[in-house]
Amino acid sequence: MAFADWAGRSCFLARFFSVAEFEFHPATRHLNLDAVLAFFARNQQIISIAGGAVPAIYFQDQRVTMEQLGPLLEAAKRKDQSIIIKADRSASYEIVAEVTNAALERGITSVALAATPPR
Q1: Alpha carbon distances (Å) from 66 to 24, 27, 90, 101, 110
Q2: Cα dist. 86→5, 27, 59, 79 in Å?
Q3: How far apart, in whole angstroms, are the C-alpha atoms of residue 59 and residue 45?
């Protein structure tokens, strides 16, 4: 392994564990996902999806429609940002796929889905 690879991985692990140390909940043995995502969201945009009869999409904590999401994703592409999609359990697969496809169609190649462990 090259030194640059090792150093990059070590830096990531050090940053991860420094966050994990403060966000780990021993009683549940889980990390506070919101805090960890916020820590790593420096060059990323988080899209949150709340399910229900009328799903809600949030970009940078602002509720948006699918039509409004397009230009925001194009701006993220210009800034070379990656996208993290975080959906709650009641969000339908269709809306998650629609948001994911919207990002991919605009040329964003780094799209991740965040999940929380079952309770």
Answers
A1: 34, 39, 18, 11, 19
A2: 29, 24, 11, 21
A3: 7
**What is the spatial distance between Cα 22 and Cα 48, in angstroms, rounded to a whole number?**
23
Please, what's the b/e burial string for 37-68 (b: 16 or more CB within 10 A of its CB; e: otherwise)? beeeeeeebbbbbbeeeebebebeeeebeeee
What CATH number does the domain located at 33-114 have?
3.30.420.270
Partners of 86 in the β-ladder: 48, 114
Instruction: Yes or no: say if 70 and 31 are a contact pair by the CB < 8 Å rule.
Output: no
Domain boundaries, the chain: 1-31, 33-114
Instruction: Give me the half-sphere count of Cα atoms (radius 13 Å) on the Cβ side of residue 117.
Output: 6
- Rounded to two decimals, the pTM is 0.63
- pLDDT tens digits along 19-30: 444 454 556 656
Query: What is d(CA 21, CA 41) in angstroms, rounded to the nearest whole number?
Result: 18
